[in-house]
Structure formats: structure tokens, C-alpha cells
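Subject: design request, 103 residues
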């Protein structure tokens, strides 16, 4: 797995492109098993726009946005209150685009 941060700032949001070698069907099933579900069209359009700013060479038109909230435990950014996690996924594409947001 290869991870690349798409923004240098340290703030309440992180954006990453993660290259994976696992078959996309397994990733899709793992997201569903972990409580991720397809996001609304408005939310999907918003996050595709965010990622386009940092990766303008990729067309996100065929990507599906999956979203979930999680609490990661004591001593982490997402300790007491959940963070939002957004994952742009396209069947057959080796890249996942991940956003983690702390509100």
C-alpha cells in the first residue's frame, strides 16, 4: 500500500490518495462491512470537487463516495467525538481517495 498526502496543511481535514493492491471487490465489501455506505449526490459532488483541486488530472465522474463516522479511541484526533471519513472508490482503480474530517 502506498499513501500520498494531498495537502500539506495541518488542520481539521486530511486528504490522501492511497494506492492499493487488493482486488476492488474486497475493498468494496470491507467498506460495507465496516459501516460505510454510499453518500448523497450533494455530498459526493462536494468531495469530488475537493479532490479535483488537489488531483486535477483524475476524472472522478465514475467514482462512488462512501461515507461513515468513527471514533478511533483515546489519545487520537477522533477520540471522544467521531470524525467523518469519506472514501472515493472506483471499481478496478488502484487508488482510493480518502478524506478524514474532524468537526
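Subject: RE: design request

Done. Sequence follows.
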Amino acid at each position: 500500500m502506498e499513501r500520498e498526502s494531498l495537502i500539506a496543511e495541518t488542520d481539521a481535514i486530511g486528504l490522501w490518495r492511497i494506492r492499493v493492491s487488493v482486488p476492488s471487490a474486497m475493498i468494496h465489501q470491507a467498506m460495507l462491512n465496516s459501516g460505510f455506505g454510499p453518500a448523497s449526490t450533494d455530498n459526493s459532488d462536494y468531495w469530488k470537487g475537493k479532490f479535483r483541486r488537489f488531483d486535477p488530472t483524475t476524472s472522478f465522474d465514475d467514482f462512488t463516495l462512501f461515507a461513515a463516522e468513527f471514533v478511533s479511541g483515546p489519545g487520537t484526533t477522533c477520540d471522544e467525538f467521531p470524525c467523518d471519513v469519506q472514501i472515493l472508490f472506483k471499481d478496478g482503480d488502484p487508488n482510493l481517495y480518502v478524506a478524514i474530517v474532524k468537526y
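The mean pLDDT is 85.
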